[in-house]
Amino acid sequence: xxxxxxxxxxLICFGLSWPMxxxxxxxxATAVSTSWQFITLITAGYLAGIAAKFxxxxxxxxxxxxxxxxxxxxxxxxxxxxxxKLDRExxxxxxxxxVNTSKATVQVVSSKAEVAASPVxxxxxxxxxxxxxxxxxxxxAIKLIDPAKTKSVQVISASEDSSNxxxxxxxxxxxxxxDILAEAGIDSSTSVxxxxxxxxxxxxxxxxxxxxxxxxxxxLGGLQGFILGSVSRSVCNNxxxxxxxxx
Length: 247
Fold this sequence. Notes:
By secondary structure, the protein is an alpha/beta fold. It folds into two domains: 2-93, Monooxygenase, CATH 1.20.1280; 96-246, Rossmann fold. The chain is 55% helix and 17% strand. It has helices spanning 2-28, 36-56, 62-94, 132-144, 164-183, 197-208, 230-238; strands at residues 96-100, 105-109, 121-127, 150-159, 189-194, 212-216, 243-246. It has a seven-stranded mixed β-sheet. A hairpin with a 4-residue loop joins strand 1 and strand 2. The radius of gyration is 28 Å and the shape is rod-shaped.
């Protein structure tokens, strides 16, 4: 009986540290300083102890303490995976890829990324086709644009044919973007341009003397896979201002 009490006391001493460790990890909200290898070894140790009990036939109340320790370890595993997810989300939000072309600089940024401070902008051109990708671009533009520091904002929507249905879709996309910007206190003008999206963006950029083009990474009739796509290459090689792609 004395041996059982001492064994249980050892397990309780170890076990009390796990809820405290889980709480500290939860508050830290990052898995950077957590060693999953260490937790794995401890888990394996407890499982080995339980297995030894069954193989030796020494099945008694101490097993309850073993299982309580495993429950505490399970809590630590849950916090670890939660923190890993938070770490991945932070990396995704902060991830910015830059591609240099002959004329323009292209930046790819997550729509969830925060803007530390709004820069001074000239004429901003936002390309929209009503897709989720272009809506993400508009949402990010709202965070980026400070009306007091921006000369003008124009929303364009390109229609590859002049049919009534296509024109209405383009008009709706431009109007939708305008309304979203207006709700955020950003005044903008809209226009529908007929032709291939890349050519329309380039022509309007030159016409408006744009200092920045903002667009989504999906949509605009062929802009899927923007960074490596032929349309994106055409835009980047022919515009004379930076392009911001929001994913």
